[in-house]
Amino acid sequence: MFSKILIANRGEIALRVLRACKELGIRTVAVHSTADANAMHVRLADESVCIGPPAARDSYLNIPQLVAACEITGAEAVHPGYGFLSENARFAEIVEAHGVKFIGPSPEHIRIMGDKIEAKRTVKALGIPVVPGSDGGVTNEADAFRVAAEIGYPVLIKASAGGGGRGMKVAQTADDLAEAFATARSESRAAFGDDSVYIEKYLQRPRHIEIQVLGDGMGSAIHLGERDCSLQRRHQKVWEEAPSPALNAEERDRIGGVVAKAIGDLGYAGAGTIEFLYENGEFYFIEMNTRLQVEHPVTEAITGIDLVNEQIRVASGAGLSVRQADVKFNGHAIECRINAENPATFTPSPGRISYYHPPGGLGVRVDSGVYQGYNIPSYYDSLIGKLIVHGRNRVETLMRLRRCLDEFVVDGISTTIPLFRNLVDNQDIANGLYDIHWLERYLATKPDLGEG
User: Fold this and answer.
1) So what's the pLDDT on residue 452?
2) Which residues belong to the active site?
3) Coil, strand or helix at 146
4) Could you tell me if 164 and 94 lie in one domain?
5) For a Cys-Cys bond, which of 5, 184, 217, 243 suits 169, CB 3.0-4.6 Å?
6) Which is nearest to 335 in space by CA: 442, 223, 448, 420?
């Protein structure tokens, strides 16, 4: 096992990794920009290193500075968290070239799954179902029209190197295709420096279902069930729950078994998530995230398995602590992403938190790095914390969530808490009747959400 780990991230995920390390008796190194000098993960780490000014490109994305921090502190491994450099194959290669273990999959697997076209080819060969579409990149308008005619409209044009909804456009009919194709390529070039796109069938009202996997890097892997991440705004997840209200045990075991076998055959090491669109009883692969997910706590809540602990074990060579037969699903869990944003307009709301009171009680977990008096900087993602609630069943969990949202107080800034108070009282949500477009349809009705 490692004796010292550097956490190459910030905010709630840095604190989450730090806690797992401490429970394993591992010393921690926090890195921070000048804007994060007073962050909670910096305060609680055994050591800390300032890696640059506020802009992420000069600090949290600054690979030479991170490598130097490892060398200065003698860190044996780096945990990248999520975002920033967590899915950067070059970072993983550079770190390991300097004798420091990257806590995650191999650079090769990061690179394969980071290319949406190559990822689709790879998982299809491993037996994972994929959305009907082009076999590879589509480089000209004529090919785009040919592919679209073969699979049928509507179609979705997606950036090969994309994420977060950028470089993604829908063509409902042939009349829309030329403009959508050109726009997707332009957005992809601007966002990722790569204008390659591919085309796939656009599903009308699917759910977003993802399967959590753990691989030991030696040919074995397990699945920890699914998470339903269908409540989204502009392709960004807002509310996640496990298990999905849309699946039964037979479907869960079927797709989980397919995915676990594929990941084992791939020789994958550590935590990963296979994401699907699910419609009319069928699963269609959309991407794999080769890192810890923001929503991993809902899986931890229903399985009792510490995913960060398992990541560290695998990276250290100790292997997984659990087998598939050990995985038991207990109750229901829901996570709400609490952002520093106006709940009606989603405008970022940086600033000082004048009063902070998180909820508590049985089955309640709040992953957050903020505190009363903390100043939320304007340079980074607006996520300030995650409220995770666990209950014996979905009804109990929703009741507990309602109570927690009423208790949660964050003054001095606007937050998205009022949005979740509305959602938890919505009948469609109570019945589990929603898809990936539901939230945007709901927000278009302009519900009264106040100022947060």
Assistant:
1) 64
2) 291
3) helix
4) no
5) 184
6) 420
| 65 neighbors 51 (Cβ within 8 angstroms) | yes
Q: Is residue 219 domain-shared with residue 174, that is, in the same domain?
A: no
Number of domains in the chain: 3
- Residue 443's CB is within 10 A of a number of other CB atoms, namely 16
- Here the tokens at position 186 are 């332009």
CB atoms within 10 A of CB 266: 25
At 163, which CATH number? Answer: 3.30.1490.20
pLDDT the model gives residue 368: 98
Identify whether 117 is part of a domain: no
SS3 state of residue 413: coil
Q: Is 113 within the bounds of a domain? A: no
Q: pTM score > 0.70 for this model?
A: yes
Last residue of a domain, one of 155, 179, 201: 201
Give the pair of three-digit tokens for residue 183: 């726009």
Range of the domain at 147: 132-201
Contact between 48 and 35 (Cβ < 8 Å) = no
Q: How far apart are CA 307 and CA 164, in angstroms?
A: 23
| 398-437 b/e (C-beta count within 10 Å ≥ 16 → b) | bebbeebbeebebebbbbbbbbbbbbbeeeebeeeebbbe
Mean pLDDT by 10 residues, the chain (452 residues): 97 98 98 97 98 98 98 98 97 98 98 92 95 87 93 92 77 94 91 88 94 97 98 94 96 97 98 96 95 98 98 97 97 98 93 97 98 96 96 98 98 97 97 96 90 65
Residue 64 included in any domain: yes
Q: Among 103, 118, 141, which residue terminates a domain? A: 103
Output the pLDDT for position 164: 62
Structural domain contains residue 165: yes
